[in-house]
Description:
single chain; disordered C terminus
Amino acid sequence: MKPNTFGLLISTLLFLIFIVLSLVFQSTKYLYIASVCPLLIVPFLPEPRKSQYVKPNQAGSTFRIMRLSEYESQDESGLLAIVFEPGDVSWQRKMLYFHIEDIVTTASIQPHELSASIAALPFDLKPHPSKKGWVGISLRQLAARIEQLSVTTAEINRIIIRMDDLQQIMPSSRKLNSSVQGQGQRIQA
Length: 189
């Protein structure tokens, strides 16, 4: 059992015990003690999820993480596109995380007349503080930029990231290094 679960269980049990004791003995002392118990419960309550995790291999997921090989050249390492259905990203959350092992290489994305994209800039990207291989995109910063555009967050269905920007925040990633080095030896300068 996790420490948070154990602490929540114990503090809730204490609360119930003191409520029962106050009823059985008709004591205000037990009632006062029981009224303090919720303060013991609060630190053990689970936090609401502040981030959204993209798992494209999960059943029912509409997310696809694609490296676009048509944009690769000697000077550029290409683009990464996170494609999803409008409304699948929870824009009120703080971060959108994806795992670099979920990146697949494709030639291009099929054009669609109702597609709307937003570029994730280098300062929007952050590695996950505790999970290795996960990269976060600041949804708040993207949403702030979208407000200045002629589209809304409900219409966005693609997030575009330069592979060079991704390489800067994840320099030790074997998957990114091997794909970038495979284009030429420009990293070995």
